[in-house]
Design brief:
The complex is a heterodimer of chains A (176) and B (609). Chain A has 176 residues and is α+β, with helices and mostly antiparallel strands. Helices cover 43% and strands 11% of the residues of chain A. Chain A has 7 helices and 5 strands. In chain A, strands 2-3-1-4-5 form a 5-stranded mixed sheet, covered by helices on one side. In chain A, helix 1 (15-24) runs antiparallel to helix 2. The two termini of chain A are 35 Å apart. In chain B, helix 7 runs parallel beside helix 11 and helix 18 (444-458) packs antiparallel against helix 19 (464-481). Chain B has 609 residues and is α/β, with parallel strands linked by helices. Chain B is globular, with a radius of gyration of 26 Å. Chain B is built from 24 helices and 18 strands. The chains are: A alpha+beta (176), B alpha/beta (609). Chains A and B meet through helix 2, helix 4, helix 5, helix 6 and helix 7 of A and helix 2, strand 10, strand 14, helix 18 and helix 24 of B. Chain A: InterPro entries: NADP_DH_HndA-like, NuoE-like, NuoE_dom, NuoE_N, Thioredoxin-like_sf. Chain A: [2Fe-2S] cluster binds at residues 87, 92, 128, 132. Chain A: Its cofactor is [2Fe-2S] cluster. Chain A: This is NADH dehydrogenase subunit E.
Amino acid sequence: MSNPDSLKLSAENFDAIDQIVNKYNSDKGAAIMILQQVQATYGYIGQSMLERISQLTGTPTSELFSIVTFYSQFRLEPLGENFIQVCHGTACHLAGAERISEAVQHVTKAKPGHTSPDGKFTLEHVACLGCCSHGPIMTLNNETFARMTPDKVKKMLHQKVADKGFVNSEGCELSE
Amino acid sequence: MNEHANSTSADKSGVTTVVNVGLASCGIAAGAQKVYDTFKTALEGLAVELTFSGCMGMCYNEPLVEVRSLNGGRYIYGKVQPEQVARIVQEHIQGGTPIMDWVVYSDRIKTPDADFIDKQQRIILKHCGVVNPEDIDSYLSVGGYKAIEKALKSMTPEQVIEEISRSGLRGRGGAGFPTGTKWSFARKSPGREKYVICNADEGDPGAFMDRSVLESNPHSVLEGMLIAGYAMGAENGYIYIRAEYPLAIKRLKIAIAQALEKGYLGSHILDSNFSFNIMIREGAGAFVCGEETALIASVEGKRGMPRIRPPFPAQSGVWGKPTSINNVETFANVPWIILNGGDSFSRFGTENSKGTKVFALAGSIARGGLVEVPMGITINEIVYDVGGGLSSGRKLKAVQTGGPSGGCIPASLADTQVDYDSLKKIGAIMGSGGMLIMDDSTCMVDVAKFFLKFTKSESCGKCTFCRVGTKQMLKVLERITNGEGRDGDIELLEELGQKISAGALCGLGQTVPNPVLTTIKYFRHEYEAHIFDKACPAKKCKALISYQVLADACKGCGRCSRECPTGAITGEKKMPFTINQEMCARCGLCISVCKFNAITVTTGKERGK
């Protein structure tokens, strides 16, 4: 995924949007699929992107905006360098998901649904990742970690900040 | 579960041992990919086939590795770490002696965990954890696509519907509508263009049955959809699946491509006049899209807002055409019913609930995982016989079924039978299959608040009862858990709940109050303790508890003080530390790092003492 900070939405960068729309626009009801692909490419959906999609598809920007604000998957601001999801499903809630979220917020200063001021972390709460037997569950850059504790979160994220790219899974392996 | 997924191919190449690693999302979360990779290196040069499957069901023992020999039985190892691989290869695979201390299940010997598998009745899960989900030949080797062949070659569409009706199969998404009736409505609707939709928008937090089935045996769901298409006269199908399930989506895409290649999808399937195509639509994170009219709107690329029924989807569904929407598990039952007959299926279960039900067993349970049990089994049997009792060693307090639409069943009613009607009678619902076991450390008011918080944010906002009603209910619940509850709040919640149930437009809104109403019905005293005694009996609600250092137990190591994010813990080395209550955020980090159990939580009259 390209770094959103350095992303200038020049005409050149709209190329990907043009390709996505070309690929999906012939399908009936493709709006959500197009938006999903755009987000997968850019990490988020900015206003200028909505306008470009609107130009190409003829769907009013207001309608596209109504879709991206309805579904929780869509992000309207750029993704941080690291993407954290904390599962808040029922099993994870009972296992202490709230404390995991708090620990992430303490370390990263990112609020749920937002990116930290330094742009390093984006924190998202998700309804359920379906790994209910191993809660609390957290994902870091799409790798899933089981049975988290606030302590493990701290170690893991501090290491992430220090090492830039390497996470020691020691601290987050399954342990009873 | 006895078929050898790849035994035919294994026979040919002279391979007599197969190593099968469970690679579903939960296995991978537990580290199964590393175990698989370690086996790959360790088995190099040996005449052993390394394969993978989806979910074997024993989630509590992940990562799971099965070693099966053509004549030496099958042995499943649990909680396998990469370091253990070398010994398994040396002693079991090369030496022929299984390491029994690590084996959690075997067909040769009864392990302590054997009841988890043996007490189940596996129809849908029969091949889950056995077949390779990314290889159609593996599914074909266990009789895959034989049911659609039978339907196409020897049954009329009406006979297919008749067989499904005779089986007594009811929708496994939760509402329990008879599947055969649904299909016959769609068949009878006029028009040539019709659609089959598979609802894989498993949004109930705490439920993972559909994910496991799709990750473990995706072809069984495709085959069920094909049969539905043939029965209804539809040529197109959609699978609407949550974007939060990337592995399930990947495996479905592989399965669809392979089925197309082998001629089980596409035009003139098996040289018949029947053609069928399946498209995937990824959900975008809206719980309400599990409701069928909202799901249809979302498939059409719009906001997922439900609409008033009638017209029902069977008359006017996606693109205004007759549509039948069934759940993943419902489809997965269909091939078995066609192959074995409706009467064989209806032998399982109770008078009005036939067959089996898959549950995702989670929470404070010793053996949490994916279980399939006959309808009519009691909750106690699931918890104690299959699940092995509670994991925490604490007492069973309640069992939650049906997620945010369901209810909490108290331990005193745990001898209730699991079927659509018995559960409804006590205020709960079957739901899609999430079954959460709660011990006595769970605060029921907090659980109710959790669900309301979820449904409030997931309410689509279309109708007033749901939009405003959930907000008001949540406000009252927050007040209660914040220690600001008032006399009359419980009655207010009951009144709001009844009105929302009666007035909301869709299934989501109508069932939203269930978690609150059932917890009030069975745990009213807990609400009263929060309101009148300002106490949280389970010591969960932050505003009603205090963290304290037990001076006798504290060794003065200072670990809690260093870890405390708000700097609330102070003290001198080797002396008992103290917590400043004003500064304490009650995050619990201190408890999680204290090695001496020197931190305690108090509430109510005991608080601070």
